[in-house]
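Figure 6 in text form: structure in, sequence out.
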């Protein structure tokens, strides 16, 4: 199982995303990207700016960061200083940074056939926490990161999955 079973981003990442337009967002080092399919994403490049020696130049040149444009074919972004970033990288960043609702957790559980107790054990929380997360408008970021990791790497899922024997619901049947 995995991403194909969840049908989340599986087909979207197979195609090379194309950028139609880009603009600097209000938040520092963030961009609003309009994709060729008309969808929009907010992409925060703060981590890239502060962890990459190449993009680090923008930490001191804020106005230079804002002067970004799609490349000629829409396959990435480019800046006047010669730096560029591929559309695929931007799409991955946007997908990883998006807010995800509890429905994502429910789909994950269904795809892997997990009970509430198994999900709780997998994520090292109480079953009640899992029940509450399913109703949330936004999952905690750490939970989303863990779920994405398990989807991308079945070995990581196997490393932490422990089956939990479930008890039947209701009263025990009377012995005859």
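Output sequence:
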């Amino acid at each position: 199982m995995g991403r194909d079973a969840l049908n989340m981003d599986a087909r979207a990442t197979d195609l090379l995303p194309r950028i139609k337009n880009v603009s600097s967002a209000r938040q520092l080092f963030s961009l609003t990207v309009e994709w060729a399919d008309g969808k929009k994403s907010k992409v925060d490049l703060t981590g890239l700016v502060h962890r990459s020696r190449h993009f680090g130049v923008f930490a001191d040149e804020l106005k230079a960061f804002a002067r970004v444009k799609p490349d000629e074919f829409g396959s990435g972004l480019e800046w006047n200083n010669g730096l560029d970033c591929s559309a695929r990288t931007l799409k991955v960043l946007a997908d990883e940074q998006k807010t995800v609702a509890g429905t994502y957790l429910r789909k994950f559980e269904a795809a892997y056939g997990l009970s509430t107790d198994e999900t709780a054990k997998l994520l090292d929380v109480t079953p009640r926490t899992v029940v509450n997360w399913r109703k949330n408008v936004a999952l905690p970021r750490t939970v989303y990161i863990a779920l994405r990791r398990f989807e991308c790497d079945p070995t990581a899922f196997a490393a932490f999955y422990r089956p939990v024997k479930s008890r039947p619901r209701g009263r025990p049947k009377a012995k005859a």
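Caption detail: The mean pLDDT is 90.
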